[in-house]
Amino acid sequence: xxxxxxxxxxxxxxxxxxxxxxxDFVAELLTxxxxxxxxxxxxxxxxxxxxxxxxxxxxxxxxxxxGKKMGPTDWGKTVLHEKTPWFGEDETAMRGAFPDYELxxxxxxxxxxxxxxxxxxxxxxxxxxxxEEGVYKSSDLDDLTALxxxxxxxxxxxRPGS
Length: 162
Known about the structure:
Elements: H1 3-14, H2 20-34, E1 38-44, E2 50-56, E3 67-69, H3 74-81, E4 86-88, H4 91-97, H5 101-106, E5 111-119, E6 122-131, H6 140-148, H7 152-158
Antiparallel strand pairs: 1-2, 1-6, 2-3, 4-5, 5-6
């Protein structure tokens, strides 16, 4: 990240419009790096099967504040419970991971990169970026995982009692 980007991140974190200002800034960075067709950020509480969508670049089809039962899925086991990034490289992987795959397919997506957002050794959320099959490769997970740390602050700020 450049000095300008760090300055903009600091301004996003300092904004009274938290957590939205931080979500928007991180989304801009991810869009510049990955150019996703669909991107969502989730918040997750340990022991809960539901992920809450807190940001979406397609709020019409993927509205915010909607719960998605991902904890008991293979995706949830990998990303949420094991805190490991996940690459759904094709339709088969996607269909097995997401109960709403037909909706995902309808917006032109057949691959996904997901990374957990981890704080104090616990998964508190996740980022998913989606596009056509073949657009992403497994090595892209390194950048997504590094950038996922930028969501720690806004996800912790949105937690009840924070």
